[in-house]
Write a structure and sequence with these properties.
This protein has about 280 residues and is α/β, with parallel strands linked by helices. The protein folds into two domains: about 80 residues, 2-Layer Sandwich (Alpha-Beta Plaits); about 150 residues, Rossmann fold (3-Layer(aba) Sandwich), CATH 3.40.50. Helix content is about 30%, strand content about 30%. It has eight helices and 14 strands. The chain has a seven-stranded mixed β-sheet with strand order 10-9-8-11-12-14-13, with helices on both faces. Strands 2-3-1-4 form a four-stranded antiparallel β-sheet, covered by helices on one side. The longest helix has 19 residues. The termini are far apart.
Length: about 280
């Protein structure tokens, strides 16, 4: 095992934006869950930090063998920095939705007028709230749950497909949902989500590696903040897990592909949000 102070190897992939989803799916297939994303003159640059030169070269070769589009790759050792803590410097308390304050677990909770405070340690999992797809997803589920409560009703169950750090599930729990289930294909994500539930003293959240197809019950609210290609693969199960009168929230969608995505799955959204290059939709049942 590498020491946290051992220099990591900066590995950069640059490619055209039209291949974004394909690349992220390929990266995930090779076990890379944490990365940086920056704009590039050629489209987009994805940067990750394997633990050794050998691991970086192995990842580089595997990626090039897996895709058919042009990728420029650069590999360079990073300075001797404690990366287990360095990345935390730029993540500060963040307001999300109408009433949430997201606070990194190592930060003090500031004075706030937020209705709810969530303490999160994302570790290697996706879901700090800083990405547009997570923020839009939280906004849509928050609005739906609050609208229900204003009508004297309640959302009793929530299913979070691709839960990552558990941030959306924890938000649903804070908003009063009785049963909260989160699933992910990553054991690391499931462990981190369970730790975050404990950190926030929320005992009604269940995080596991269960397959979506293993569920037979339906949920009042289902959320999937994942790649659109994965949503398409899971669509029959996603669609069937929403209870009559419930809502499905989909995020992680590229705005430029939104109309074709909706047409392909015959989805008529009741709400949609577009922020930058990303889109999210709510679908009523």
């Amino acid at each position: 095992m590498n020491s946290p102070n051992k220099p990591l190897v900066r590995t950069s992939f640059v490619f055209e934006k039209e291949f974004y989803e394909i690349f992220l799916a390929t990266l995930s297939d090779h076990g890379v869950l944490s990365f940086e994303e920056v704009d590039s003159a050629r489209g987009v640059e994805i940067i990750c930090y394997p633990a050794s030169q050998h691991a970086a070269e192995k990842l580089h070769g595997a990626i090039l063998e897996s895709v058919e589009f042009k990728i420029d790759c650069q590999i360079s050792p990073e300075p001797d920095i404690d990366w287990s803590n360095e990345w935390k410097k730029n993540w500060k308390p963040l307001r999300l939705g109408a009433g949430f304050l997201i606070v990194p677990s190592w930060e003090e909770v500031p004075e706030t007028d937020a209705d709810f405070v969530l303490r999160i340690d994302s570790g290697m999992a996706f879901g700090t709230g800083t990405h547009e797809s997570t923020a839009m997803c939280l906004e849509l589920l928050e609005a739906y749950i609050l609208d229900y409560s204003r009508d004297g009703r309640s959302v009793s169950s929530f299913l979070d497909v691709g839960c990552g750090s558990g941030i959306l599930s924890l938000a649903a729990s804070k908003l009063g949902v009785g049963r909260v289930c989160g699933i992910d294909i990553s054991p690391d994500a499931v462990e981190i989500a369970n730790n975050n539930a404990s950190l926030n003293s929320l005992d009604n959240c269940e995080f596991s590696l269960r397959k979506l197809s293993s569920f037979v019950e339906q949920f009042d609210l289902v959320c999937a903040n994942i790649l659109s290609s994965t949503i398409k693969e899971l669509w029959p199960d996603l669609h069937s897990r929403v209870a009559p009168g419930g809502r499905l929230v989909l995020s992680g969608l590229l705005a430029r592909e939104l109309d074709s995505f909706l047409d392909e799955l015959s989805i008529s959204p009741s709400s949609r949000v577009i922020r930058g290059e990303w889109a999210a939709v709510g679908v009523d049942y």
